[in-house]
Amino acid sequence: MNFEFTVLGTGSATPTLTRNPSAYLLTVDNEYFLIDCGEATQYRLQEQKIRHTRMRHVFISHLHGDHYFGLVGLLSSLSLNRRTEDMTIVGPRGLAEILTIQFKHSESILNFKVNFIETEPEKAQLVLDHPLITVETIPLQHRIPCCGFLFKEKQPKRKIIKEKLPENFPIPYIHQLKNGQDVTDELTGKVYLCSDFTTEPTAPKSFAYCSDTAYDEQKIEQIRGVDTLFHEATFAENELQRAIKTNHSTAKQAATIAQKSNAKQLIIGHYSSRYDDLSGHLTEAQSVFKNTKLAIEGDTYKI
Amino acid sequence: MNFEFTVLGTGSATPTLTRNPSAYLLTVDNEYFLIDCGEATQYRLQEQKIRHTRMRHVFISHLHGDHYFGLVGLLSSLSLNRRTEDMTIVGPRGLAEILTIQFKHSESILNFKVNFIETEPEKAQLVLDHPLITVETIPLQHRIPCCGFLFKEKQPKRKIIKEKLPENFPIPYIHQLKNGQDVTDELTGKVYLCSDFTTEPTAPKSFAYCSDTAYDEQKIEQIRGVDTLFHEATFAENELQRAIKTNHSTAKQAATIAQKSNAKQLIIGHYSSRYDDLSGHLTEAQSVFKNTKLAIEGDTYKI
Asked: Could you report the predicted ipTM of this complex, rounded to two decimals?
């Protein structure tokens, strides 16, 4: 199953012409899950040629503008573009009110239904049980209520060994085998053992998104062993005091969380506008956690 | 006095990668007046290297998103960039509420004071009396309450004939002459006639901004003789029925308003995303009103 992460915006609060505000796209199989939606994210999605009919879920971490000011524009444009599929928006208290009041004043009725799921950022909670994945919130420590999101692939199905299957083997039987069940042929009574015709599925993968947050070890237990951790690294260690003061993290702190939670891969982002060159962030993080990558706008990362 | 108009966004509701949503900057002397503020306008201002300390007034025509979704982000960023100058926002009922609720949820307190002036789009009203200009609303006919703005330069001062002035002529006396007053020298009693030392000032200029609007002759009396008319031309005549249905105008209709109001120059913009090539708009408009220009993003037009 396709499970990857595309970076649309790596900036932080202060706007620059070289970085877009926070927005990320998780691709699971053929479905898109948008994570945060800073101003002008709809243009980033257009650039990536994302088919919006396949994007049915948006996750908003918190109500600082660099994480959600683009949402009202995105929804308006989807409606203008005649979208009819439901959209589920997972976000904090207040988001529904902010969107609703704007549609009220523009006298707009969206062409599609919006389902709001309100997060309670102070506790981990299951916010989505989707056929492909589950999503839990990750409580984060920031200046206003804020949570990350832990995306866990559901147990993938067993893999069929095609060469071993009899010719014209009925499709419902194949599904039974994929689901780990033995099959008894209704006509002949012959038994096909799942273990003979399938191999073990790949292990389910997981992805944790943690932005914005101070250095905080409380989340480690929840994200332990995650395949890919995205962790904000607004600052480098030279601005540790500013990171503490503003409830953000340094690259080294992000790497420490990755190392302590035994993540397999770390991607850092949400860079302060004071840094043009990010090689310091990378070196600093890799000194603690080797498999660190910089989030680069437009790039896609396998989870 | 410098009096010019810079185009930041020429798109209409449906977003494209080739046009930005509505935003225009009027420059009067050294002051900037922002007119409409679609999504991502703050980046357009950065590209134009606009000194935000000189921008103290924002005018919002109506609450369709392509005309104001960028305002909350602009204000947030100005505050992050430590602006302290007051900002006056002229816009329709609802705008203050929309902004306030977003700052409440982000727990943001702006570094500067915002003065809201609420328009009453159904009638022409004086909304700003500034040392350099006055601004009146222009009632427009659209799907939701909407008004344009008529910017009128105040009577410019008389021009000093420098060669005629005595050496070391006191500056307060110069100001008296510029204001049209004769001067009596306190020491010598000598009288300096204003008519001897100054020439007539240039005629005060005016600029009318009309977007979004159906074809509507009611505004003609108010804007008669305007130096520059910006009028929306969402469609060309091939989409006249759509223009009527959506309360927008065609290029030809915009030109008809310019011609009937005896404007000196017409600039058209707010183009529908269905038009890549705008030469049809221009030809059509010029067939009715010769001195028509297309609004081009990044370009500045003398008024």
From this structure: 0.90
The pLDDT of residue B1:
73
CA separation for the pair B236, B249 (Å, rounded): 8
Torsion of CA B151, B212, B63, B21, to 10 degrees: -90
For residue A280, give the H/E element and its range: helix A279-286
Bridge partners, A148 (sequence order): A138
Largest CA distance in chain B: 74
Residues belonging to chain B: 303
Angle at B101 between CA B99 and CA B102, to 5 degrees: 65
CA distance B69 to chain A (A): 7
CATH architecture for the domain at B3-156+202-302:
4-Layer Sandwich (3.60)
**Confidence check: pLDDT of A3 > 80:** yes
Tokens of B156: 């410019």
What does the pLDDT look like over A66-108, one tens digit per residue? 999 999 999 999 999 999 999 999 999 999 999 999 999 999 8
Closest C-alpha to B157, from B128, B184, B197, B186: B197
Hey, is the C-beta of A76 within 8 angstroms of any chain B C-beta? yes
Residue B189 has pLDDT above 80, yes or no: yes
This prediction's pTM: 0.91
Q: Is B61 helix (H, G, I), strand (E, B) or coil?
A: coil
Contact assignment for B76 to A70 by CB distance below 8 Å = no
**Strand spans (E) along chain A:** 3-9, 23-28, 31-37, 55-59, 87-92, 114-119, 126-129, 133-139, 147-153, 159-160, 183-184, 191-192, 198-199, 206-210, 228-232, 265-269, 292-294, 300-302
Instruction: Tell me the average pLDDT of chain A.
Output: 95
pLDDT higher than 90, residue B203:
no
Nearest-CA neighbor of A154 among A177, A123, A179, A175?
A179
Place of tokens 């085998």: A177
Give me the residues paired with residue A183 across strands.
A192
Tokens of A226: 């995650």
pLDDT score of A53: 87
On chain A, the residues whose CB falls within 8 A of the CB of B14 are 77, 80-81
Residue in the block written with tokens 């990320």: A24
* pLDDT tens-digit readout, B257-273: 999 999 999 999 999 99
To the nearest whole percent, how much of chain B has pLDDT over 90?
89
A70 touches chain B (CB under 8 A): yes
- In chain A, residues 79-138 whose CB comes closer than 8 Å to chain B: 80-81, 92, 94-95, 97-98, 101-102, 104-107
**Residue A133: both structure tokens together:** 């994945």
Helix or strand holding residue A281 (H, E): helix A279-286
What is the distance between the alpha carbons of residues A197 and A296, in angstroms, rounded to a whole number?
A: 43
Distance CA A85, CA B5 (A): 41
Distance CA B225, CA B235 (A): 25
- Structure confidence at residue B60 as a pLDDT band (50, 70, 90): very high
Of A121, A63, A75, A65, the C-alpha closest to A102 is A75
A259 interface with B at CB cutoff 8 Å: no
Can you give the residue ranges of every domain in chain A?
A: 3-156+202-302, 159-199
A298 touches B at CB < 8 Å: no
pLDDT at position A1 over 80: no
pLDDT tier at B218, thresholds 50, 70, 90: very high
